[in-house]
Structure formats: C-alpha cells, structure tokens
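note to self — DONT lose this again. spent like an hour looking for the file last time. sequence + predicted structure for the chain T wanted, 224 res
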Amino acid sequence: MPESTRSSRGVTVVIALAIALAGLCYSSWVLEFVLPVDTDPVDDFLSELTSGDRPYHQVFATADKLVGLLLIPAAVGALLVFRRRGLTTVGWVALGCFGAATIADAMFPLRDCAAADSGCGDGLIPQLRQPHALTSTLAVTSIAVAAFAFTLAAHRYHRWRILRVFGAVVLVTGAVATVWMLVADNLSGSYALGIAQRIQVGAMSLWLLTLAAAVLAEAGEWIE
C-alpha cells in the first residue's frame, strides 16, 4: 500500500473518532437523569443545564466546548483529505460551523429568566430573547444543513450506504421533533417542549455517530 494511502486512511480514522467523540459529548444531557440537577425533562430546555445557577453546569458546558473542539478540526481535516464534492463540501463546512456555534452556546449560557432584572421578556419561551438563542439557532441550523447535505450527497453520488439508510431515518426523526417545537412555540401551553428538544438533540448526537460510522466503515468512498 502506498505511503500516501496509508496516511490518508490514518487521518480518516482520526476524523471518524473525533466525530464519534463529539456525538457522545453532545449527548451529555443524559446525565441529568443521574446527577441532581433539578430539571423537568418534560418542559425544561436542555440549555438550562449550562445555566450558571444550576449545579454541575460546568460539566455540561465543558461537554459542549469539547464538541466544537473535536468537530472543527475534523471538518477541516475532511476538507483537506477527502475528495471534494459540492454537497460534501457544504456538509463539512456546516459541520465546522456547528462546532463553532456549540462552543458559543457554552460561552453564552442561558440566563435565569426568573430573575426580576433578567430582561428575558414574556411569552411561552422567554429564553428566546437571550443571546443564547442566537447561538442555539445557529447550531441547530448548521447541523441540519450538514445532515441534509450529506444525505443528499449519499443518494446523488450513490455512496455511503450507512448515511443513505440509517442517516436518513435519524434526519427525519430530528426534523419531526424540530417541527414539533416550532409549532408548539406558537400555541398556548407547553406541549412537552422538553421532550421534543431531547428527541431533537438526541437525533443530532445519533446522526454524528452515524456519520462517524460512515467515515470509518466506508473510508475508501470518501477518499476516491
């Protein structure tokens, strides 16, 4: 095997591992069922886990930062090593943006909207008046663009069966949860927004693991 091919495959393994670790870190919210964080999984946003007034908030904030620190170099590495295709280029750039937005999420945590001087405003989801809403929106949008781009690429280029099949199922699941949240935001009542977001974020983590599996198991199809 040529030295360049061995080197490329070695980098591919590192990229896959970085994406997989990012997916695991992004699922750190499951610790809310183990740690005494005093959240309501039915109605509370996951962003409240990183709020400064919550116990163990540094644990969840650190996990978010690790997601970005893993994904940004992984995306850059993929752009440098893997064959350039229009849709996959969009996907890797979007994945890097997701990593950056996730770091920003941790740097601008949710403020306590119960405080009289919080300035969050009124409404069903007053937290959306905060800077954290922007970083969260950028993160969700970025990974959605990445997932759609890679799924479309898998079908158009007839490659990466893992993404074509399982990745598409995860993408649809996350999209349904997102629609659930967007519709509920315009209705009176909570409509279990906490559950909807946990499904959404869980789908994001699972999609990252799916992408990692596709990169690792189908390495040759990324390089060719």
